[in-house]
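Box S2. Input/output pair 1.
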Amino acid sequence: MSMMNQRDAVFAAVCSVLGGVPQGQVELKGEQKKAVHEAVVVGFLTGQIELKGDRSPEWIAKYVPGLVNNWVRKDKRLNGNTEYVAKNPGSRSGAGDEMLKNLRALLAVNPDPKARKEIQSAIDKRMEELKPKLSIDINNLPEHLRQFAPVAVLNAQNVPVKAVPPMIRRTSATSAAEVELAAEPELTEEQLEELTQPE
């Protein structure tokens, strides 16, 4: 017998507790929610529901309420057939970063407006540092599309160019370079062709 995925397991538990397939948006009340949680916990403990890794019963018991809440909001069969939209998109950005976690905690306990502004500035700076850098490996692009790569990428990967505008800077010379792209000037096709011609 194959295991059920977590989404379908939550749906099945909700249907079981409510006595059938729900019509419209599901709102579980106290005892209903408790019964759904228990059914999903039992499913995990008996190996009927997919779960990566070997987890303790205590971990599973703490995991299940968030799992159920997640699928009640996101599964169209349970949320009245509506597209889920996150209330605060990006609010979990940097959640694993200790510095950011501590900066946010400091902001939460500091009432001084001047200090809050400085702390928020540090948070914004740290968020910018954590953003993934654009990475394009020219070697993994079809030959006919390589001409569209920004000049900074060509330069970072040692593709011969006659000139690189000073406002575009190289941050790495690896084959799959991570580059920061400054505001690039609009280049005509002739200028781009001239820049990428071998000397």
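Box S3. Input/output pair 2.
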Amino acid sequence: MISEYRRVERGSADGRSALVADRTSALSCSHRRARGRVLCVLRNMLLLALSITGLSLGLTPAFCQSPAFTTRTPRVNPPAWYAAPPVIHDTVIARGQGRSNDHQVAVDKAVLEARSALADSIDHAWEGLLWDIEEQTGHGHVSMHEPVTLQGSTVRVQKITKRGRTWTAFVLVGLPEESVRSELLRRLNRDRAWYEKIKDAPAVREIETPHP
């Protein structure tokens, strides 16, 4: 009798354990499914946030890019005179290139680039002159950057091409060598005390002598 009761009790306990195990397993599966749904929702929200952020910055998210919708402005080959600028007597030549959806803006960009190159050429000539003067006289001078006046600079040649919606301008801008010499003389005479010490240097006399 007691043994049978123990067997029944054990059987009931085993049944309850099995029932608890089944319920635990079901709850575990339910929790996994719920967690999976949450992760899916979070993933979709993240993609949506990235998409909105990309659009607000003017960008296209990586997962939305398509090679079929990628547009590029066709390359415009420069003219021969741009690739190899001609040598013009008594003139310093610089080249420039500009691109824009507006015709005049493209030209302005090209001219600005060429004029910047001319200004750099004058600065380099000034640095070279200071080096020669210091070697010849022993009197150095601190070179300070200053605006360059490109008096007499003009557009010698230009070509404007349109591909798609984009204008591309190529220009050659010329500056008379006399204007370069005048700019160097202006800088030499800016510091009169220093000029009195170096005025007899061969490099200074060469700059002060007009070229025919």
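Caption for Box S3: The chain has two domains: 2-64, 80-208. The helical segments are 2-56, 80-83, 103-137, 177-188, 192-198, 202-208.
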